[in-house]
Automatic annotation (TrEMBL):
Entry protein name: cytokinin dehydrogenase
Segments forming domain FAD-binding PCMH-type: 51-229
Membrane as UniProt keyword: no
BP GO annotations: cytokinin metabolic process
Similarity comment: Belongs to the oxygen-dependent FAD-linked oxidoreductase family.
Domain of life: Eukaryota
Taxonomic path: Eukaryota, Viridiplantae, Streptophyta, Embryophyta, Tracheophyta
Length: 539
């Protein structure tokens, strides 16, 4: 039997009114009590010191339930219809990714520092709070003779912060990035639901959150794979004068899998004749200001072999094998250090830069994944663009292996149609002089150099010649090379700084549709991580 049209209409109207009442009344969800409008100044910018923006309030959660309450309130009430929320880990982003200007910041460091070893199926894991620093995870696991397998170069970053971007270092070619070493997470979605997820359970959220730039949910716990911790590390650096030889050696070592870690560095200028041991292994230390008439550079291949004090001869054998591969006509330095000192190597440099006031300066960083076939072209572009500037901070260039990356996650790496397994990690990690603040021409110049290199590197095939730099091709550094070469490099940015949906669509490529669908499912109002500038907040 059919209801009369009037009754049908009234029922529909009643339904809409009730839905509106429940969303607008906010009777079920109150903002958590520990939301504070006292915003400390350190939450208004980040390590980059380029983007600034104060939130209206800060949540210092004492449990994931506080985060859930906040997000549920925002999702369910039109009172908060413009409010955005950013989780903030250690705030070591460089382009405002953890900021929420005019919104709410969730200070993840306030969550209880829970780090617990878990045994299962013959493997050990650690359950770490999303706001725990990796150095805390390392210290705790070492007490049990264990260690996570995959690292970042610097350990004062949070578990949630690096899992949201990828988490890479010299171990990645062997162990995969940090996001390939997680088996389970607790996530608070943009709708405020607390969800446990893994490869098997809620796998769309699990994969989407890993490398998902904080867009789908806030990680409050991650279960991370462990390995036995080696006590000692042979830390080796091999100097090269020729880029081809440097990349050939790096790839040989990575493919042979004989070392536990491999990174590489480009150094501007001529290699110093006499070595200064105290500087040999520094990376973030202030460089000499080199402005050669001709762009010149030398290259350092940095490797590490983990070993047990009980098995020194095995380490010596491995080392001899590796050096036989890479040391022809090159100089070699070796340090024997503890595993902890090796992994925590950047900390000393941080402290010494802090002492001279050079840590809290603007950091116009640029990170890229470059296809193997384009790494020579990228090297030439880098030298032409940067060699007339003062360059402080390391320039990392090293090979990694695509098959170690779980491509079901949200991370984006270059697609190689020829099926090439190797691609290159490039990090141009410059520190501007302290006077080079936002709005000064010196910082603008560094940012423009980055932008040009990024555009040239990330352009695809036929579009490449047309999109060089900010102006025309003739004013681009490296324009001669650009025009001679004529094709695209097809690189992808790591931790991109992009403006708006169009650029992000291009970045994600074939992964965009799925990412957009996941966003609509888990954060339909686009509340989370506005500093990434991917999706506009919906009312
Ligand atoms: P934040 O800067 O606080 O946040 C980063 C993003 O993640 C934001 O969008 C934020 O909203 C989101 N987020 C934060 N916490 C969570 C959470 N719990 N759940 C969901 N989303 C969250 N990266 C590497 O891969 N390898 C390196 O070797 C490396 N070395 C570095 C060295 C230094 C000195 C610095 C400053 C950075 C380095 N990075 C490196 C980059 C670093 O991994 C990223 O910037 C990372 O996001 C920083 O972590 P964080 O805890 O500071 O996150």
């Amino acid at each position: 039997m059919r209801l009369s049209p009037i009754l049908e209409l009234s029922a529909a109207l009643l339904f809409i009114l009730l839905a509106f009442f429940f969303r607008s009344s906010n009777i079920f969800f109150k903002l958590p009590a520990n939301l504070s409008v006292q915003v400390p100044v350190n939450l208004t910018s980040d390590y980059g010191r380029i983007i600034h923006g104060a939130p209206d309030a800060v949540l210092r959660p004492s449990s994931p339930v506080d985060i859930s309450l906040l997000l549920k309130s925002i999702y369910s009430s039109p009172l908060y219809d413009e409010v955005t929320v950013a989780a903030r880990g250690a705030g070591h982003s460089t382009h405002g990714q953890a900021l929420a200007p005019g919104g709410f910041v969730v200070d993840m460091r306030s969550l209880p520092l829970s780090i617990t070893i878990v045994d299962g199926d013959g493997t050990s894991y650690v359950d770490a709070a999303g706001g725990a620093l990796w150095i805390d995870v390392l210290n705790e696991t070492l007490r049990h003779g264990l260690s996570p397998r995959s690292w970042t170069d610097y350990l004062y970053l949070t578990v949630g912060g690096t899992l949201s971007v990828g988490g890479i270092s010299g171990q990645t070619f062997k162990q995969g990035p940090q996001i390939s070493n997680v088996v389970e997470m607790d996530v608070v979605t943009g709708k405020g639901e607390i969800v446990e997820c893994s490869e098997r359970e809620n796998s769309d959220l699990f994969h989407g959150v890993l490398g998902g730039l904080g867009q789908l949910g806030i990680i409050t716990r991650a279960r991370i794979k462990l390995r036995p911790a080696p006590p000692m590390v042979a830390w080796i650096r091999v100097k090269h004068h020729d880029f081809e030889q440097f990349t050939r050696h790096g790839e040989l070592v990575v493919n042979a899998g004989e070392v536990d870690y491999l990174e590489g560095f480009i150094k501007f200028g001529d290699a110093p004749h006499s070595h200064q041991p105290e500087d040999a292994f520094s990376r973030f230390g202030a460089e000499r200001c080199v402005k050669p008439r001709q762009p010149t550079a030398y290259y350092l291949l940095e490797m590490a072999i983990y070993y047990d004090d009980d098995d020194v001869s095995d380490a010596a054998r491995k080392r001899a094998k590796v050096l036989a591969r890479v040391s022809s006509m090159t100089s070699v330095e070796i340090l024997e250090v503890s595993y902890l000192d090796f992994l925590n190597r950047v900390r000393e440099e941080e402290l010494s830069l802090r002492r001279v006031g050079l840590w809290n300066v603007p950091h116009p960083w640029m990170n890229l994944f470059v296809p193997r076939s384009q790494i020579r072209s990228f090297h030439d572009l880098l030298l032409r663009t940067m060699s007339d500037s003062c360059n402080n901070g390391p320039i990392l260039v090293y090979p990694t292996l695509a098959h170690r990356w779980n491509l079901n996650t949200s991370i984006v790496v270059p697609q190689d149609e020829a099926g090439e397994d190797v691609f290159y990690v490039v990090g141009v990690l410059r520190a501007a002089p302290p006077t080079c603040t936002v709005g000064t021409s010196c910082l603008d110049r560094l940012m423009q150099q980055n932008e040009r290199m990024i555009r040239m590197a990330t352009a695809r095939g036929s579009s490449r010649g047309a999109t060089c730099g900010l102006t025309t091709t003739t004013t681009c550094p490296g324009a001669e090379w650009w025009e001679e070469d004529g094709g695209g490099m097809g690189a992808k940015q790591y931790m991109p700084y992009l403006e708006g949906e169009e650029e992000w669509r291009e970045h994600f490529g074939p992964k965009w549709k799925r990412f957009e669908e996941l966003k609509a499912k888990f954060d339909p109002l686009n509340v989370l991580a506005p500093g990434q500038r991917i999706f506009k907040r919906k009312k």
